[in-house]
Design brief:
By secondary structure, the chain is of the alpha/beta class. It has 2 domains: 2-245, no CATH class; 373-440, no CATH class. It has helices at residues 112-119, 157-161, 168-176, 212-219, 233-245, 276-279, 373-377, 384-393, 396-401, 413-418, 425-440; strands at 2-5, 23-25, 31-34, 44-46, 53-54, 59-63, 66-72, 77-84, 90-97, 126-128, 142-146, 183-187, 199-204, 228-232, 251-257, 265-270, 290-294, 301-303, 315-320. Strands 1-13-12-11-14-10 form a 6-stranded mixed β-sheet. Strand 6 and strand 7 form a beta hairpin. Helix 3 (168-176) packs across helix 5. The relative contact order is 0.15. The model has no long low-confidence stretch (mean pLDDT 94).
Length: 441
């Protein structure tokens, strides 16, 4: 077991954290939804139509270029609506759940990679380079599993894992057969997970230590021509359970957090559940509009109160939605409540602890300030500022030299938060990866 100490990064201590490990049941609901945009790299082609009945685990759509690669229904029920946008793009698939849940039994006699692809679990993993859903035809050099989430207010994955911990060994056994290299587990010292067939690394340091990309970069970086797969420990347990029982478990424990939540807590739910079933009756009534985020404040997606929990997340954060607010002296205010990563306000004297942040950007987009800001927030051996410039200009040679194959948008989320230039770094990286993939493939 190796111990890796990361010094770069920052732990954003926000108000609204969960103080109890008690898990309650989410409010019951009859509607669930899957959003194809959550599965980067898949071009969806529908396998169902409105009015069709599906069991949990039946394919809703498959990848245009690979019919085996599918995304499946989290519940059994009737396809109530296929929501489309411009140019008939599929925005979401809404399922009206049955009163009696029925699971589809998968054929485990097939090759393991086919079972993962058709069950929808491969779509819950990611491939480097390009941070996309893995290609079933690719053989990964190694597979990396992160066992903790270091993002602000993130859930304790050990608690979310619960009784499914028993399926980890089976999951590692399955994944070990898909790679010629090793299966790595990335853990915190206070919650070390050791599984036969996997190599455990203990990571110390602030966020983004829990990011799979950061763990890959500090254990065995991705070079040109290499492929690695990444996933979290919850998906690993689902894989183990699938190969032990033949069904996919879409249940999860969701952390509901944020300064606008009356009682931050854990709730038992199912992937794709309505946001309203998680937050109803539990938001502060202080006259402030709310920004509801499916995920954490750095990488999550802003959603409406009548929308659904997005597939990659088991976390909902609610913060104040403030577009305009008059403040005495504005940015020059000496208020001890104003927050800054760079100690620009007196709040750092109190340790910047337990702060409340709203949705304001507090600045405008400007030229990149070459002050090493990104590097301080990114514990990877790359020149982040130069990489962003290379992506913007789409200089392929420099992008390759500066580590484009190692990164994903989430790795730049903290740097985006701290960026005095107010650039949308995650969007820039995502667009750069997409263009690079199109160019190289």
């Amino acid at each position: 077991m190796a111990s890796i100490n990361l010094k770069k990064g920052y732990d954003l201590d926000l108000r609204g954290k969960i103080l109890s490990d008690t898990v309650a049941d989410a409010a019951p609901s009859s509607l669930y939804a899957i959003v194809p945009d959550d599965f980067t790299g898949i071009i969806p082609r529908l396998d169902v139509a409105e009015g069709d009945h599906v069991d949990a685990g039946i394919a809703l759509f498959h990848h245009k270029d690979n019919e085996k690669l599918k995304v499946t229904s989290p519940v059994s029920g009737v396809i109530k609506q296929v929501v489309r946008g411009e140019r008939r793009k599929i925005l979401s698939i809404v399922i009206e759940a049955d009163k009696e849940h029925t699971d589809f039994k998968h054929d485990l006699s097939q090759p393991a990679i086919d079972v993962l692809a058709t069950s929808g679990l491969l779509a819950m993993m990611r491939q480097r380079p390009y941070d996309i859903v893995p290609n079933p035809a690719a053989q990964p050099r190694d597979i990396f599993i992160t066992c903790f989430d270091s993002a602000p207010l993130a859930p304790d994955l050990g608690l979310v894992l619960g009784e499914n911990r028993q399926y980890l060994e089976k999951g590692v056994e399955v994944l070990s057969g898909l790679t010629s290299g090793k299966v790595y587990l990335g853990c915190r010292a206070e919650n070390v997970i050791e599984v036969a067939g996997a190599e455990t690394n203990v990571f110390k340091g602030p966020h983004p230590a829990g990011n799979a990309g950061v763990q890959v970069a500090n254990v065995k970086p991705v070079n040109k021509g290499e492929v690695v797969w990444t996933l979290d420990v919850i998906t690993l347990a689902r894989i183990g359970k699938l190969f032990a029982k033949g069904v996919v478990d879409f249940s999860t424990t969701v952390a509901v957090t944020g300064s606008q939540v009356k009682e931050p807590r854990y709730l038992r739910a199912t992937m794709g559940c309505p946001i309203s079933s998680l937050i109803s009756g539990n938001l502060a009534d202080n006259g402030t509009e709310n920004r509801i985020i499916s995920g954490n404040v750095l990488t999550g997606v802003a959603v409406a109160a009548d929308s659904y929990l997005r597939a990659p997340y088991r976390h909902v954060t609610v913060i104040p939605e403030i577009d305009k607010k008059d403040e005495f002296m504005g940015w020059a205010s000496l208020s001890p409540r104003k927050f800054s990563v760079y100690r620009l306000f007196t709040s750092w004297l109190t340790g910047n602890r337990n702060v409340t942040l709203d949705s304001r950007l507090k600045g405008g987009e400007r030229a990149i300030v070459m002050a090493g800001e990104y590097d301080r927030m990114l514990p990877m051996d790359i020149y982040a500022e130069f990489l962003i410039k290379a992506i913007i200009t789409f200089d392929i040679d420099k992008m390759e030299q500066l580590g484009i194959y190692e990164v994903a948008p989430e790795d730049f989320a903290l740097a985006e938060f701290a960026d005095t230039s107010k650039l949308e770094l995650q969007r820039i990286v995502r667009e750069g990866l997409d263009k690079m993939r199109k160019e190289m493939e």
